[in-house]
Amino acid sequence: MQIPIFHTYIHPTAKQRVAEVLDTTFLSEGKLVKEFEARLSRDLGMVHPAALNSGTSALHLAMVIAGIGPGDEVILSPQTFVASALVISQQGATPVFADIQYETGNIDPSDIESRITERTKAIMAVHWGGYPCDLDEIHAIARKYGLLVIEDAAHAPGATYKGRAIGSISDFTCFSFQAIKHLTTGDGGAICCLDPVLVQETFKRRWFGIDRANSPMSELGEREYDISAVGFKYHLSDYAAALGLANLEGFNERLARRRALVRRYREELANVPGLTLFEEKGDREGAYWLFGFHVEQRLAFIRSLKAKGIVASIIHDGIDHNSLFGGTRADLANQLRFNKTQIHIPIHDALTNEQLAYVVDVIKQGW
Ligand SMILES: *Cc1c(COP(=O)(O)O)cnc(C)c1O
């Protein structure tokens, strides 16, 4: 038997809850989406979340509502999935990469300022593996230059920064509920927005630009509405929300257990030769979608674990290497170093204490 790196968590009540929606034959966006959004606020501290059909839709909607368009620039970390930069390109804007901290995989605030031009509109902070970026430093730069802050929190539902929930801090925060993320709706996402006026926009634009709550059905049988701005078909459906609601049961307990597993990993692996843990600070709590660190002799490490039935894997090289984004950048020294040594090992809801002890044991034997 192999110990996988990811595991899709599906709550035991999910089948029943999704089946109930199928029985009603009302599958699209309805009261379960509302209930899901209310629970995201209540349980995870997200502010005004609008549920969407993917994390990529959330990021794209943030771009649209932030007014990012042709000629604009958005500064982001290359240590992410391509979706983060694609949504910028989709708007005809340019992703501008700032270097990362080798120690965390997150954007390095001290490398942002020199990348700012008169075209820069926003900074996108990607919380690598679910470990929060240096948000105070990022916000200070954003304030100084009048930029928006958009968080790609695809890995970070439940994470906190200085006691505040991720999803309550920046102009826009985008979450993913894709199949292998911590909290899945199959595919799905959410956008949180602090400005109450823009919150209304997120709800309108996720459904073609139609204000669903304020467009009554006429006697003729159609909704009465007027489209005043481009909208999208980005809403979540009720059958997916039913899966999300089931998976929210016990989410905070599951997150606490994930954190406990990480604490054990970090204690056990702290002094292993050839292995360097990522750095952590006491003022924030990661959501740990991933557990990563740096290793020497990486291929030997992967092969050695594989031979013992454990999956270890790199997760995304710096996305700057893609030709669409201009090809590998020589001025991202930490990203280049990170590409060579990052590795991630199993962390998920199905990982038992015994399995963790076994993984630790195998690593301690050397590679
Ligand atoms: C998963 C992910 C996304 C995209 O989310 P989808 O729900 O798959 O569209 C965006 N950014 C990062 C960092 C991700 O890991």
Please explain how this structure is put together.
This protein folds into two domains: 235 residues, Aspartate Aminotransferase, domain 2 (3-Layer(aba) Sandwich), CATH 3.40.640.10; 114 residues, Aspartate Aminotransferase, domain 1 (Alpha-Beta Complex), CATH 3.90.1150. The chain is 34% helix and 14% strand. A hairpin with a 2-residue loop joins strand 6 and strand 7. The model has no long low-confidence stretch (mean pLDDT 97). It contains eleven helices and 13 strands. Helix 1 packs antiparallel against helix 7 and helix 8 runs parallel beside helix 11. The protein has 367 residues and is α/β, with parallel strands linked by helices. It is globular, with a radius of gyration of 21 Å. It binds pyridoxal-5'-phosphate (PLP). Pyridoxal-5'-phosphate (PLP) binds next to helix 3 and helix 4. InterPro entries: DegT/StrS_aminotransferase, PyrdxlP-dep_Trfase, PyrdxlP-dep_Trfase_major, PyrdxlP-dep_Trfase_small. One of its GO terms (molecular function) is transaminase activity. Belongs to the DegT/DnrJ/EryC1 family.
Keyphrases for this structure?
single chain; 367 residues; alpha/beta; Aspartate Aminotransferase, domain 2; Aspartate Aminotransferase, domain 1; 2 domains; 7-stranded mixed β-sheet; 3-stranded antiparallel β-sheet; 34% helix; globular; binds pyridoxal-5'-phosphate; transaminase activity; Pyridoxal-5'-phosphate-dependent protein
